[in-house]
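Ticket #4471: structure export looks truncated?
Reporter: QA, pipeline team
Priority: medium

Steps to reproduce: submit the single chain below to the structure queue and open the exported record.
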Amino acid sequence: MSTDLELFCSLFAGRARAVGLAYEALSAITGNSFGTGDAAATRLGPDQLPDLVHGCLVGRHPLILGILPKIANAESVFASVRRYRNQCVVARSNLTADQALDLNLFLLGPPGSDNDEQWKALGATIERDDRVARKQVWLRPLQADENEESFRLFCERTFMARPWLKGHSIEAQLALDPIEELFTDEGAPVGVGRDWFGLADGEMEPGPDLVEALITRYRDGA
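Actual output as written to the record:
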């Protein structure tokens, strides 16, 4: 494992502990073989998968962690993202249906990318692509001593955000709601629990449309 990937993993493990989520390595999602059964014989070649990758489980969320190229060259960056997306396809085949819905791909930019306009544009483009897994990019600062705070702010954009831990009145009130407490203890965004119950009690008939509405509400809140 590279030094950069070790840093990324260490920061995720530390942040998980800080917000009360379990963290464990999940090597099953970083291989080159698809699932089980007939698909198990299908493998991707090394040129189709990333060289540096780590799999882990944070709370109920399976994560693929990876490293972007050091130069903000669109061709090489998107080629790298394609390989990580392939890894996510392999990962999904080794996860349950529920776990696959929660799969996230987190990618690390090079030092100084946080103040680089090219990297900001590339990062935004990567994050807009929600095929296979939700993708988010941490553009880290040039100075290593700023990494921890920068990463904390990055996590505020992810399922690891815990605004109700800050003592804000609205979030604190929601956290006291037993329905919200049940959902947020499992890592769901604030407000999702009540909204789910509202959708379930509404006029929408049980079926695919209701399921899609529930999934959309969760993703919008994450």
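Status: closed, not a bug. The export was complete when the record was re-opened. Leaving a note from the reviewer for reference: The longest strand covers residues 61-67.
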